[in-house]
Specification:
single chain; mainly beta; Immunoglobulin-like; 2 domains; 6-stranded mixed beta sheet; 4-stranded antiparallel beta sheet; 4 helices; 20 strands; neurexin family protein binding; exocytosis
Length: 347
Amino acid sequence: ESDTASEISFQFNKHKKTPSIGSHSSDMASVSSVSGSVLSVYSGDFGSVDAQGTVEFALGYDEKNREFQIHVSQCKDLAVVDEKKGRSDPYVKTYLLPDKARMGKRKTSVKKRTVNPIYNEVLRYKIEKMVLLIQKLNLSVWHNDPLGRNSFLGEIEIDLASWDWSNRKLNWYMLKPRSLSAINGVDHRGVMNLSIKYVPPGSLGPKNPPSGEVHIWVKDVKDLLQLRPSGVDSFVKCYVLPDTSKKSYQKTRVIKRDTNPVFNHTIVYDGFHTEDLKDACVELTVWDHEKLTNHFLGGIRLGLGTGLSYGISVDWMDSTQEEVAFWQEMMSAANEWIDGLLPLRSL
């Protein structure tokens, strides 16, 4: 598979205020993907209730069945969500981090009208012990809302690499507010080495190029998460948001069994007006490729991070200060390659 440039047209539709993208590529092997714009690590309401109370649980590993087991016993003195009715309907949810999508969530039943719920349920993950030891357990408690706006009641995070596996007893843990690492997505997922360039319309001669172009040169990625003993089979996906259609989707080839993959792949988006740079966002995400599904490893979003796109509030216009500075430097230095080394993050 060659690393020739992929070309994509970015066309701004003034009536719909939504860009539409057409694309072609020399490297379009079919893959199964989760979504163009990756969801946040958490979804729900974090601001309305202060975390309080405790949770009792025990951890164990069944060597015979190769199964990680979380015995969730009970909670005490949880926060009250509905103060008028003095009511909370709590349940417990677990994830294995950093790759939530790969292992999925597990959750207990919902216990209604209590701040002292008793569960006595076992949540199970089929996972190899050596893979488990590079994970963190995130256990959180939530109030179940019938309308889907569940409220966060507190969490505990445990580094399984340092866990005492001889300890299979039930223990009490204080529930904590949402962690800073979860809020900022600062868990280390690797670093992407890339260059970008903006070529304004007509800057290379009369009608050359006929429209503005954004060039993205994905060079390599360092220190990817190793999700299994054999390493990781990674590739990079690219969209120019707000368009997440199949026409806008581009990807690199898959680099197998390497946590430091070299891609050396260039993508060119044309059809750009200079003013589009304020409202568009280049989303680059790294994925682990498997036959049935792909697993999100980390990503970056290059844009101004204003929270707005063409006057509409969007959650993906959330570039970090480092990503914003990188994008601004490209905007202010037409026809010049801007080099960057940006940390991958949860999106």
